[in-house]
Amino acid sequence: RRPPRSTLFPYTTLFRSVMVAAMDDLDDHRTFSAKRQVFQSANRVSSMSMLTLNEIASRGIPVNKLRYTPLGVPLDQFVPDPRDRKEIYAKEISNSPMAANAPASHFTPETIRLGIVGRRYVDGRKGEQFLMDAIRLLSTRIPQGMTICLSFVGPRWEAMGGIDLSDLPNVVIEFHPDLPFDMYPSVYNTLDAVVVTSKTEGGPMCIMEALACGTRVISTPGGHANEFLTRLNSDGDEELGNIVGYGDVPGLARMLKEWVCDNINATRLPTTRARISRVMRETDNLSYRKPGGEGHDPFAPYDWAHFVRNYTEIYLEIAAEMGDGVHVADY
Fold this sequence. Notes:
alpha/beta
């Protein structure tokens, strides 16, 4: 199981917050000068995006401080489920707390299930209005008898209000603020796509979790989404995910219509989900390696164990430099 964030990320919340804050202003030299002081004072600057690291390096931050730390997921848990969604619902969901907000009617063949996974924030960075506007437009373009189900998985989506499309007869919404982590694979396997509409992102983790389960993704280019999806699409034989510009309401509605709704039968095939998941597992994450590749396997998938090891090595490097008597060789 993925360990609690507090056990793995004692400092990376700061790193991530700095990265998100800086990315919006990288083209503004006046703002970046303040960010540079933070980067220069850090022992290491980590990012899951190589593009971000290259941009920071171009602004004068020493390369030897930069570390590429691609995300990873527990690949032994996030796997495609060959059962259809009705069976998954009956066996995994109907008797769980999730069923209170997710009736069986949300899992019919005529229902397009779209997942929005992750914590909502007060600043609107998740693109809530962008999503609502696109779904409203999409609802006018889908065939009669088809229903769109938006499944919000994560805290605050319902509590903060504003997520309401009850005036649309062909759209239903479900909220799951406290879903146990071991339920996530079952949920991903009932989704037709995961949709990310964020203005800025730290990852997001849900892209990798979805793909590991064979679920396609539509995302804005925040975080590592653009370079990660581009890499997987170029290495595999399947269009795994699409990128849409933030705020492009017609573009997102069109993408959902053409790429998800119009191809729903092919998307749900177990062979399709298995192929998507296989590309995720067979792509090397190109994570940071020491000269000669010491300490790393020749091939490193996007797995949680490699993610943990990357961060562990960063901490051990810093400890060794500070003279605490800890060396990477001891790990």
